[in-house]
Structures are given as C-alpha cells and as structure tokens.
Amino acid sequence: MSSVDLARRQGTLEIKQFMRSREAVVFTMAFPVIMILIFASIFNDEIAPGVNYTQYFITGMIATGLMTVGFQNLGIQIPIERDKGVLKRYRGTPMPKWVYFAGKVLMVAAIGVIEVAILLVISITLFDLHAPASAEKWFTFAWVSLLGLTASTLCGIAFSSVPRNARSATAVVTPVALVLQFISGVFFVFTDLPTWMQQIAAIFPLKWMCQGLRSVFLPDSFAAAEPAGSWELGKVALVLCAWCVVGLVVCIRTFSWQNKYSR
C-alpha cells in the first residue's frame, strides 16, 4: 500500500472516530452553531451604518469554528490517545510516523469544511448574512480559512504536549480557547475592548482570522472601524503564516508519543 493510501485510510479512520464521539461532535461542531442561534436571536443592534451585531458576531463564530476544529479538538484528543497508549502503539508499527499526523490533518480539514458549510447555511438563511459578492471575496475567504485552519491545527498538535494527562486536557485547553474568543473580537466589537486586551489578542491568530473574515462578509465601509482603519489583509496573511511556522517548529521539538509524566 502506498503512503498516499495509508494517509487516506488513516484520515478516514480519524473521521469515523470523531463522528462516533458524541462529546467531540457537540463541543467541536455544535458549540459555534448553538452560540450563533442564541446570540443572533438576542442581539441585533446596529454597530455601524449597514452593519448589525449579528453579522459581526457570525463572522467571529466562523473563525471560532475553525479554531475549535483545529486547536481545541486536537489539543484535547491527542493527550487522550497518548494517555491510553494509542500513540505508543502507533509508534511501534511499521506505519510511517507522518501518516498519523496526515490523518489528523485530513480529519480537521473534512470537519472544518462541514462546520463552515453548516454555519454559512444557518447564517445566510436565518440571519441575513450576505454571501461573498465577488470572486475576490471568495478567494479571500478561502485563503483566510485555509491559513487559519492550518495554524489552528499545528498549534493544537503543539499544545497537546501541555496537559499532563487525558483528565486535565479539557481543563487546560478549553479556558485558553474561551479567553482567545473573548479578547479577539468574537463576542464583542474588537475596538470596544481595552487597548491592552487588543494588543494581547493581536499576538494570536484568532484575532486575525476574525478580521480577515470580516473583510469578506461585512461592507468595505466597515474597514474604517478596524484598529488600523483598514482590513490589513497583507498583515492577516503574514501573521497566520508566521503561526503556521511557529506551530510546526514547536510540534517537531516537543511532540511526544507517550506520556512523559508516567515514565
């Protein structure tokens, strides 16, 4: 069997395992949908000419969905597999090590596409979110989503080395994801946050994912309400690419196939 076939079969296995885990499906896929249904139904005030809170919040939740699928999902799932000895057994097989990671990447990509599709359908049909009106907007949507999902995936694999065991994984990863959402302009208009909070959020990828997606779904006039007075798409791409590199380097240097605390 070729390496490509191995990776494809590993990806299929990962997707099946994910879909069979009720908790993973609920927290990874259902959470952004539930939050949109709740917040968009309660808050609908206009935050700028032609832009209401619902439109702003939905773009942030799409970015959150991508981060949840990559960072939060892998940051919790991998420590569980490590604690159960699954990774140790994988390492002892003839299967190339990269195939394991390829399976995770394929799983994240597939679930990410499904997640975004669900969020778009709900937002466009129920809450009047306007689909991108031009090929340029769709292209921006594609590269922001791809870079954001890649950065989230690599950071999730890298962060999976932080929890000491499977039991602490959720407690360690989930607060980090929630804090990033609160300071990155998902639940609140970013420029309404304290300056120090904006500066901290600007270090991490979620803020830039939200900003890039706002350029796709919100009117161009709203760019004036951003901190720099523009969408800064070049900077969005630069920061997300930098996090892809950082995440990859940390993965290579820190990933462990067995629980180092149980040795």
Automatic annotation (TrEMBL):
Main location as per UniProt: membrane
GO cellular component: ATP-binding cassette (ABC) transporter complex
Compartments, as annotated in UniProt: Cell membrane; Membrane
Entry superkingdom: Bacteria
Record bears the keyword Transmembrane helix: yes
Topological type in the membrane: Multi-pass membrane protein
Domain ABC transmembrane type-2 positions: 23-258
Alphabetical list of Pfam families matching this protein: ABC2_membrane (PF01061)
Protein name: Transport permease protein
Keywords annotated in UniProt: Antibiotic resistance, Cell membrane, Membrane, Transmembrane, Transmembrane helix, Transport
InterPro entries: ABC2_TM, ABC2_TM_bact-type, ABC_2_transport, Nod_factor_ABC_transporter
Listed GO MF terms: ABC-type transporter activity
Native source organism of the sequence: Phytohabitans flavus
Organism lineage: Bacteria, Bacillati, Actinomycetota, Actinomycetes, Micromonosporales
GO biological process: response to antibiotic
